[in-house]
Each structure stands twice: as C-alpha cells, then as structure tokens.
Amino acid sequence: MNVLALVGYFEPWWVQVLKAIVVFAVGLQLVPLVLIAERKLLGRFQGRYGPNRVGPYGMAQPLADILKLLTKEQFRPRTSAGLLYALAPMISIMTAVAAFGLIPFGDVQDIFGTKVGLYGVDVSIGPLYLFAFGAIAFYGIMLGGWSSGSKYSFLGAMRGAAQLISYEVSQGLALVGVVISAQTLSLTGIVRAQAGMWYIVPQFVGFLIFLTASFAETNRAPFDLTEADAELVGGYNTEYGGGRFASYYFAEYLNVVVVSGIVTTVFLGGWMLPFGLHPPGWVDPFVVLFKMSLITFLFIWVRATLPRLRYDQLMSFGWLVLLPLATLNALVTAIVVVATQ
Amino acid sequence: MHAPDDPRSTEGSSGEGLAADSAQAPGAGAHARARSTPDEGGAVGSTASTLAVSVWDPGDDVIEVLRTPAPGHAKGTWRTLFETVRGLATTFGRFLEPKVTIEYPEEKTAVYPRFRGRHKLHRFEDTGLEKCVGCSLCAAACPADCIRVVAAENTPEHRVSPGERYAEVYEINMSRCIFCGYCEIACPFDAITMGHDYELSDYDRTDLIFTKEMLLAEPLERTPLRNEGE
Prior knowledge:
heterodimer; A: mainly alpha; two-stranded antiparallel sheet; 12 helices; B: alpha+beta; Alpha-Beta Plaits; three-stranded antiparallel sheet; 7 helices; 27% helix
C-alpha cells in the first residue's frame, strides 16, 4: 500500500487526470448557466423578460457576451503594473476552479470496474483547503485592484480585502460546528455523516451564518461593496476589459457555484435524498446539482431584494453580530457533542 | 442614536410605546420624562410648559412608528433578519406577477385616438379629389417651419382639388416637425390631420422629407389604437 492510498487517493493516476479535465469542463458549463439564470430571474423579479433574443429563450446570451469580451483588444492602463495586471485574473480563476474540484457530486462509484469518486479530489482537510484557496482568491482581487494603477480600483480592492478577511472568520467558525458534529474534515465524510439528518436542522444557526458570510465572500449583493457601481465605478475590475474582465466575471460566478456546492455538501446532505430514498449512483450528481441550483436561486433572489450595505454596517455586522454568533454556535455544538457522547 | 431611549420596535400605539420607554429607561433625564408625558387630550400643555424641552406630540393619529434598526447593534439584527425575510417575500410576489415588457418590434404600443403622429393628407371619399387647396395656412402656422406648399391652378382638364387651386408640392420635413398639431388646427378644409404612426426613423435625412404622395397614401403598417381609459 503506497502513501497516496493512505491519504485517500485510491484512484489510478489517469482517472485523476481525467477527473481534473471533467471538473474544469463541468465548471465551464455551469457558469454560463448561472449567468443566464441570474439575468433571466432578475428580469422576472423586476417584471420583465431578461435576455430573450439570442438563441432560444435567450439561452445563447452568455455565449454572445463571452465571445464579445474575448474578441476585444487586450489593453492595459499606462499606470498599471504589467505582469501583476495580467496575473491577477488568472489567480482568481485558478482558485475558483480549485475550490470547485472539492465539491462531491456523489459517492465512490464502480464505473466499468474502476472505482471512481464523483468529485475532483477528496482531501482529508476539506474546509481548510477551501479556506486556503479562498485566501489566495483574495490576492486575485487585491493584486488586480492595486496593479490597475487607478484609485477606484484600489479603493475597491481595499474594501474587498477588509470584507473578505472579516467574513472569512465567521464563515470558518460556522463550519466548525458541522465539523465537530461530523467529526471529520473530509467533505465526503461530512456528507456520509448526514445520512440520518441533514445538518441544516441541528446546525441551522451555522447554516444562516455560513450563508450570510458566503454572500460577503463571493462579493454578491447585498455585500457587493467591492463593486459598488455608484461610488467606485466598478471596484477592483474597473480597469479591466476583454478576456481579463471575462476571467474575473467567470471566477465571480464560479465562486457562486462553489459556495452553492459547499452549502449543499455541508448543510443539505450532499447527494443524499430525504425519506430514505436510495436511488442508483448515477442519480447522485443530479441531486447535488438540483440542491445547488436552489442555493443559487437564493443568491439571485437576495440580490433582487436587498440594497447594498453601508461600509460601517458591513463591518459592524461582521464583527459584532456574525462573529460572536458563530463562536457561540461552535461552542454550544462542542458542548452538546461532548455531553451526548 | 444610542441613547437609553433608543427607538423601540414597531409594535404598540404611541402611548404604549412611550410608557414602555419610560419604564425601561428610568431617570434618563428631562428628555425621557418629557417623552413619557401621556398624550391623551390636552394634558400635554400644562406638563410640557414647565419643561425646558418642548416635545412634539404626535397625538392619536400616529399608531405605529417604523424605524430602521440602529446601525451596529445586535438588537437591530433580529429586525434585520425578519425584515429581510419580509423583503424576500415581497420580491417573490413580484416574481409571480406577469411581465410588463412590451416586446417592441413584434408588439407595438397602442396609442390613444388623440395621439399626434405622422401626418395624413386626405381625399374626398366620393370624388377622390384632394381636400387640400394649397392655401399654405398650415405652413404659416407651423412653428418649426417644416411644411412647404407650392400651389398651382386647377384646370377643367386637370382637376386635383375642388377649389380654385391645389397643392402641386406638399412636403413635410419629419426631422424638423415637432408634432404640435398646429397645421391640423390651421387647415380650413381638414385636409391635413395628425395620424397615429410613430415609427419615423430612417437611414438618411433626405428620406425624412415626406412628399404629398407619401402623405396621401395609407401607411404600410397600422399602429394599434386603444380607447380612452384602456
């Protein structure tokens, strides 16, 4: 038995290479879907249609948008710092895809005699891995804003930095309750631990905290202070255009997908179905995708509802409300788990 | 905002709210005492006159006072949570409502009968003669000076209008017209009226000069009409 098998990598190398490609491809397919879903749903929330001209029901609109962006001229402001300016969107997109690789779409399946886990990688430090890449993703925003050489970008990036740091703490602490209950850091392990009851029930407070912090982490309304069109023009990506802007855009929406996946995995029982249903293994990814789409709908719904927070509200909410609540939640969970064992 | 008599939540009449206020913040100074003044009848006058701070009494009209949660306070958070849920319910209600978009090129906005759109020139229905007699009153009335009329004499062989003269040239420059309808009012024979068509864009400015033939012809596409109150 080699070392890789000990840490959970039981698959042959070629399966892992294949899975890496599949994860990237699936991620690439999901982002345009979220894009069009957001624009269509926002339209419905505001009593209009949303895009409906390009392709059937406007479904080709993201394709048209991305083609438009990619065929644009590559340019950069004279005051920008060249290498970092080009590198920053890549960091954003890389961390988003890396986090996406962690979401389990199903249990280990026997496909033509080869054991394949329906996930990119099942690391034994799941949430830590997520937060590590979340921390690197912050460099994508920070470097992008700073290297643009524009004060608006820089202000947007600074706000983004403060926001990400503030809410990452609460997000992490909200997960601690789940990790204590599941007694594992592996995401598939957390899903299996929800066989009896999904963690949204015993960890409802944690769920709310995690969801709220996730809105901030993905820079979505009502926490989209990094973008704040009215005062910052567009935030950290003000000076970006063309393919690089498309990368930022892609990363932003992939982050929404990733967060939906994490919420599904950690609180909504992953591929499990309620009422003791046990469908065949190939149904699992669809169950996960369905639950993810529910969370994504919630993201869009909230965006259509809530106005943007003021900066002091953002900070006081994060530090004075979410953090104490998350800490309390982790403490109470720990006491309950210890007391019941 | 963080004084002891901080805004209460929405429940209760103003009288109850103020009573609760004084109960929770005893000895908060003259200001709190003034606010705890009972607001029934004219009892305010005697009490308030003795105090340095006169307090506006909302009376019985104000049943509840809606206040935003105090920023940065934990007690505002519960309000925020429930208000958020209420807001979500509201937007979901909008989600279920029908769409209000009019998909323009396929679906045209209906106009009211009095709508002033592209002009029309008219003929007599029985004889087919033009109503316009080339008097140029419309051109004189036009504030934008966009109508050009050149009159010519009718002859027995070539009779165009029932009058003495007819309009040999009748042009309206639609890029100048302000659609005020003065030409329609000025016309003594109702020969020119404002139509209902509003699709008047073109690729060339010269194409926007409408000749007599264009104004006499029926428009290719009819603009939908709607009635008063529709």
